[in-house]
Structure formats: structure tokens, C-alpha cells
From TrEMBL:
Name of the protein this chain belongs to: CoxB-like protein
Signal peptide boundaries: 1-24
Keyword Signal: yes
Organism: Methylobacterium tarhaniae
Domain of life: Bacteria
Keyword terms of this UniProt record: Signal
Length: 289
């Protein structure tokens, strides 16, 4: 693409693992990819992505705070397959929760390994498909069962815009959840982004939704939510930062609405000098003209 605005950030969206505490629900944290042009190709290179979010759910009579931190390696390879760029990801989360104002618990969540194909459709439009696997975790308050994740993204990144829709479908493997968990239902998440760049700044709106799919378990109460928020980002050169705040406007069977602050940083460990503009972390040579 001639203008892949901040396309290198796409890697961050693909490996955030571990949704945090839930008796069921998504293995992928809802909202993890907002702000990112995940349908666009990433400039060839190796990237380190750190992401952290902290929020509080109003689960009366108390509240439930949750912190999720993830370190991810993203490799935009020099290879193509079926006309799409091959991109590989590996991420490990560490989470902490204090349910209903009780003692904090913490532990390593589910690691994720994934591969993605990203196609340049022309006209500053890109499409990507990701297939990944979440590995089992022994941390009791997070999702523990292995699962597959399929992700489909469409991005427009022309004229310094990032208009992206990112659909997640997760499928759990095995029939027996841990003791005390009724079921692990399959799930769907949708992350939406509408941001614009002004020089080194990026501002705009974000939103996400999530829902459990029918589980076929008598008495199970399906969970879901819709959240909206605003984002601001700044490209420091060697590091690209994004910060955003989201708030649930609808929740179903979560016990209350969540308010969450997010921070994401992308550090290129290596970039192909033929694709990356000198001194600009996530911008291609063509973008800098």
C-alpha cells in the first residue's frame, strides 16, 4: 500500500492473550486490537510490543479490578503465501485481579502462537486472516482450556485515516472445563477503530463488543458487552505509544460495567531499510514522501 498509516502497529493486535477472570468467556481480551490497522501489512521486520490495561468492573456490592500485561514478538517475514504477506506472532500475558475487594491474585495467562496472512487489496485497503492457538494455563482465575482463534480484519489506511473492523471467532478444544466452571463457550468479538493522524499525533474513537455463542448447557447465562472510548497516540520515533480509555455501555451477565485504561508501546528491533523510512518507527518510505 502507498499509505499504510502506522501499519507496524498491526502486530500488537494479534498476540494479546488471556482475557482475565471469568467463569467463562473469551480467551482473547475484548478490545485488545482497537486503535490498530490489523488488516494492513506490517513493514518487514521484528517488533517488540508491550501492552498493559487496568480497569474496574462495578460488581456490587464491591468492585473487581483487573490488570492485564502482555509482551509480544511480531515478525513480518519477507515471504508471501497465496499473495499475502506472512506474519508471525508469539505473546505471553501476566494478569492480576482483586475480586470483590478481596486479596489480589496474579499469574501467567494463556500463551498464544499465531500466523497471519495480510493482503494489499489496493486503494489503501488491506485484509488479513489470522489463525492461532491458545495453550493451557494453570492460573485459576483466567481461561485455562486450549482453544483456536480465527481473526478477520479489514482496514482502510489512506489519507492518514485508520478505519478498521476486526472480527474474532474462538473455539475451545476439549469437553471438560476445570472444576467450578460450567462451560467454556465459543465466542465472537468485534473491535472497531476510526482514528486520524495529525503529524506525529493520532486521535479518534474506538469501540468493541463481545458475546458468548450458544453453549448448550442448561442454566448457563451467556455473557456479552459493548464498550466505547477515545484514543490518543504519539510517534516518538524509536517508540510508538497509544493510550485509550473505554467504558461499557451495555453488559450482559458480567455483574456490572467496566471502565478501563489501556497503554500500548511498539519498539522495532529490526526493520527492512527498503520499507521503513529513516528515523520513523512505523512509517514506510512511501508514506514519508
Amino acid at each position: 500500500m502507498r499509505r499504510r498509516a502506522a501499519a507496524g502497529l498491526a502486530g500488537a493486535a494479534c498476540c494479546l492473550a488471556g482475557a482475565g477472570p471469568a467463569a467463562a468467556g473469551s480467551a482473547a481480551q475484548p478490545g485488545q486490537s482497537v486503535g490498530l490497522p490489523v488488516g494492513a501489512q506490517i513493514p518487514h521486520g521484528l517488533y517488540l510490543i508491550t501492552a498493559s490495561n487496568f480497569g474496574v468492573r462495578d460488581t456490587a456490592p464491591g468492585v473487581t479490578p483487573l490488570n492485564v500485561n502482555t509482551v509480544t514478538l511480531a515478525w513480518a517475514t519477507p515471504w508471501d503465501l497465496l499473495g499475502g504477506r506472512v506474519q508471525l506472532f508469539a505473546g505471553v500475558p501476566y494478569s492480576a485481579v482483586g475480586p470483590q475487594n478481596s486479596a489480589w491474585q496474579s499469574g501467567v495467562g494463556q500463551p498464544l502462537l499465531a500466523g497471519q496472512l495480510a493482503w494489499d487489496l489496493g486503494g489503501d485497503v488491506g485484509f488479513s486472516y489470522l489463525l492461532g492457538g491458545y495453550f493451557p494455563s494453570q492460573t485459576g482465575f483466567t481461561t485455562q482450556a486450549p482453544s483456536l482463534t480465527h481473526r478477520f480484519a479489514l482496514s482502510y489506511v489512506g489519507n492518514d485515516w485508520n478505519l478498521t473492523g476486526h472480527l474474532f471467532y474462538g473455539h475451545f478444544l476439549g469437553d471438560r472445563p476445570p472444576p467450578g466452571v460450567a462451560t467454556y463457550p465459543d465466542y465472537m468479538n468485534l473491535d472497531l477503530t476510526a482514528t486520524k493522524k495529525f503529524g506525529k499525533w493520532q486521535v479518534g474513537a474506538v469501540a468493541f463488543a463481545s458475546t458468548d455463542l450458544p453453549a448448550g448447557v442448561a442454566g448457563y447465562r451467556s455473557q456479552g458487552q459493548i464498550a466505547v472510548g477515545g484514543l490518543v497516540g504519539y510517534n516518538f520515533g524509536p517508540v510508538n505509544l497509544q493510550a485509550f480509555v473505554t467504558r461499557d455501555v451495555i453488559d450482559r451477565n458480567y455483574g456490572g460495567r467496566d471502565t478501563r485504561a489501556w497503554l500500548r508501546a511498539v519498539i522495532p528491533l529490526y526493520q527492512d531499510k527498503q520499507e521503513a523510512a529513516p528515523g520513523r518507527t512505523l512509517v514506510t518510505r512511501e508514506q514519508s514522501r
